[in-house]
Structure formats: C-alpha cells, structure tokens
Design a protein that fits this description.
Layout: H1 4-13, H2 22-38, H3 46-59, H4 66-77, H5 80-102, H6 104-115, H7 121-136, H8 139-157, H9 161-178, H10 183-192, H11 196-222, H12 240-250, H13 255-273, H14 278-291, H15 293-311, H16 314-322, H17 328-347, H18 350-368, H19 372-389, H20 394-403, H21 407-411, H22 415-429
Length: 437
C-alpha cells in the first residue's frame, strides 16, 4: 500500500492548474505557431521544438530533485508502447528503403497506373486505405504500406505529395476507428461495457456520411487528373513484396512480423532480379533505419514530456475541470468527447487516451443515462480525430517521414478526420442517432 506521507509528497510535487500543461503549449508555440508565422514548416525542426518543451517540462517539475525529474521523464520515454512504436519505425524504415532500392515502389506505381484510370486514382487510394485499415485494424500499418506508393504517384499525375499522402492517412483513420480488431475499438467497448458490433453500428451512422462526402470529393478532384498515356511496363515480380505485406497484414499477422517478412521477401526478390547485391540490400536497410533517426528521437522526447505532464498533474487537472459542471446528456457526451480529446493531446496515443479516461467516461455515461454504445463510439471517434490532427502523433510522423514532407502539411489536407469531427459534434448536439440517444 502507498503510505499517506508518500501521497502527500506526490501531491506537493504537482503543479497548480494549467501550469502542468505549459510544456505542451511551449511545443505548439515553438513548432506550429512559429512555422505558421514564417510560412515555412521546415524552419524549426520538430525535434528541436520537442527538446525545448522537454527541458522546460523538467525544469518546472517543482518539489522533486533533478535526478527524480529526469527518471520520470525517462520512464515515459521507455514506455512499452513507445518502444513498440520505435521497433515499428525501425522495421518500416528498413522495409521502405530496401523496397525502393529494389524498384518495388516504381513497379507498384506503374501497376496502379495500369489498373486505375487517372480520374479514379484518388478515390481508389482512399478506398484501398479504408479497406486495408478496416481489415488489419491499424492506421500505422496502412500508412506504412501505402504512403510510398502514394508519394510515387504524386509525381506521375502532378499532385502535391502532402495532399495524396493525406488521402491515404484519412482512409487509414477510417479503418482504425471502425475495425473490430483495432486497439481503440477494443479499449472503447471494454471500458464502456458494450459489444463491438453494437459500437460499430453507432459509429458507422456517425462517420459513414463523412466518408462518403470525402469519397465524392476525391472522385470530383480526380476528374481533373490525367495519368500518363504510356506508363512504363509493370515488372510484376518486383510488386511481390508489397503484395506479401498487404496479404499478411490482411490475414491479421502482427505488424512487427509483417514488416520482418516484408524485409526478407524484398531482399530475396532484389537479389534474384538483380535490383541489388547483398551489400546493397544491407546498405539500403541501413539508410532506411538511419532515415528514421529523427522520428525515433521525437517519439522518445514526446513520450518523456507527456509522462512529465502526467506526473505534474496535467491530465488529472483536465479530468477534474471537465467533470465538475455537467448537466444533461448533451453535456455528458460533450464532456466525454472533450476528456478523450485532451487526453489524446497529452498522450499522443489514441488507445492510451481511451484507457486513461474510459472509466471516468463510463461513470459519466451511467450517471446521466448516456447509452454505452454511444459513449464507446464517441471515445473512439474523438480519439482518432485528435490523433490525426496532431503533428506529433505516430501516424503523422510516420507518413511525413516516408514521404519526406512536414506533418503539418499533411494535416492541412486531412479532410476525412476534419469532417468526422464535425459529424461527431453534430451527433452530440442533435442527439443522433436517435435510437441511441
């Protein structure tokens, strides 16, 4: 048991009010606001912005020795979820770069240009991302598989890379929100005490119209596109690594194993086709891993900073403030949405955000008569919404790294998550769907 004295010391070490959240404000100010002011998202590296915010978070953690503050920061950086993401980043970098060196990206782009007419490229990419993420239950896996192809298509059809990458990312969040095997779905339904299929029925009624609107928009945008009249011939054998990755992912294989298999198949295919020799393969993997260096550093700094915010009482303060004044079902649902959104902002992990506030959301739902299927849907939808709109989320960092663009540039084109947020707010304000209101 924790002694009363230790609890008192913990409380004393916490910061008052919103002060615990100031490191997050420092990060957003240094990175986002500065970039917007100078109209250049490359002026301030995101790693530098996180370094400044992390140092500030440690400095303001009053009531504890510096050694303990750094230990708390390090605990957050070494969180199992953070380390799992780093493993995925390392393997994804090795796979993406070796596939590119072997010619798999070009072959897959040519195959796509042969199969889809130019005016259906955007809609086809969005549908593919929706289907894959719905099948495998992970937005990160979908982004890893499709982003290199999308970036390659951008040059062929004359589109901005951030825009076409956002098409893939939007579809990836669609499946992450709705999939039966998604971590967010499992966490939301378990904390609220409802069945996955019931939560899916509520969820699809809320986000389905947003997905259809975005799909029609991509079809309309695609009318302007012209694919090359004579695309290069398809080298079918070089498409095999992507087919294997997609096939194993759709079969439900763990993403770590999927990427490991993809690396091996890419190496074998490249050696047999003369795409590279053994040392060329090793060199490509090394370059891919090195290319993920900043992404890994940012992930570690973000994990440490956000854990420091938690230790300083930032998340508890948000929960306390939001749950003080609730009146009626609308207020309860808005509170649940705000709780998980702010928790996601402070954790940069939608599953962890749901787990963090799931119990409190359940208490609020029970107290004010909110249907557990609706509360589960709101938890999942708003966590995926925020996850897609923060530049330090794993999905945006991964997509930006693979496409060599700024995460903020991609976020500006993420129409599906934005429309999802509008639809979810409308579902609260207008008590929709009526059956679950």
């Amino acid at each position: 048991m924790t002694s009363p004295q230790k609890n008192d010391e913990t409380q004393k070490s916490r910061l008052p009010g919103w002060a615990a959240l100031t490191p997050l404000a420092i990060f957003l100010g240094v990175y986002l606001v500065t970039s917007l002011v100078v109209h250049d998202f490359y002026k301030v590296p995101i790693s530098v912005a996180f370094l400044i915010a992390s140092v500030f978070a440690i400095l303001i953690s009053a009531g504890r020795p510096v050694k303990e503050r750094i230990a708390g920061f390090s605990t957050g950086a070494a969180n199992p979820n953070i380390l799992l993401m780093i493993w995925i980043f390392i393997l994804a970098g090795a796979f993406a770069q070796s596939a590119k060196a072997m010619g798999a990206v070009e072959a897959t782009v040519n195959l796509t240009l042969h199969v889809l007419p130019g005016n259906l490229l955007l809609a086809g990419l969005f549908i593919a991302a929706c289907f894959i993420s719905l099948s495998i239950g992970t937005s990160v896996g979908t982004i890893v598989a499709l982003t290199p192809v999308a970036a390659g298509l951008a040059g062929q059809v004359g589109l901005d890379i951030p825009f076409i990458v956002a098409v893939v990312a939007g579809g990836a969040f669609f499946g992450d929100n709705l999939s039966f095997i998604s971590d967010t779905t499992i966490a939301a339904t378990r904390t609220q005490g409802c069945r996955m299929q019931d939560k899916f029925k509520v969820n699809i009624l809320i986000v389905g119209p947003a997905a259809l609107l975005v799909l029609f928009y991509y079809i309309f945008c695609g009318l302007q596109l012209q694919a090359p009249l004579h695309p290069d011939p398809v080298q079918w054998v070089k498409v095999i690594p992507y087919l294997v990755v997609l096939g194993t992912a759709l079969a439900g294989v763990n993403v770590i194993l999927v990427l490991t298999i993809g690396i091996l198949v890419t190496g074998i295919t490249g050696l047999l086709t003369g795409g590279f020799d053994t040392f060329g393969w090793f060199g490509a993997m090394g370059d891919g891993i090195s290319g993920m260096g900043e992404l890994i550093i940012v992930t570690l700094l973000a994990g440490g900073m956000l854990e420091t915010i938690r230790l300083n009482g930032g998340i508890d303060y948000i929960i306390d403030r939001l749950t003080r004044r609730i009146s009626g079902k609308r207020g309860a649902e808005l509170c649940i949405a705000a709780l998980v959104s702010l928790a996601n902002l402070c954790t940069a992990n939608n599953t962890i955000a749901i787990i963090t506030v799931g119990g409190i959301a359940k208490d609020i739902a029970t107290r004010f008569g909110v249907d557990p299927r609706k509360s589960a849907s709101l938890l999942d939808t708003f966590s995926c919404l925020v996850q897609g709109l923060i530049p330090y989320g794993a999905q945006m960092l991964m997509a930006a790294s693979l496409a060599a663009v700024s995460p903020v540039e991609i976020i500006g084109c993420l129409y599906y998550p934005m429309l999802t947020g509008i639809a979810a707010l409308a579902a609260i304000l207008f008590r929709y769907p009526k059956k679950y209101a």
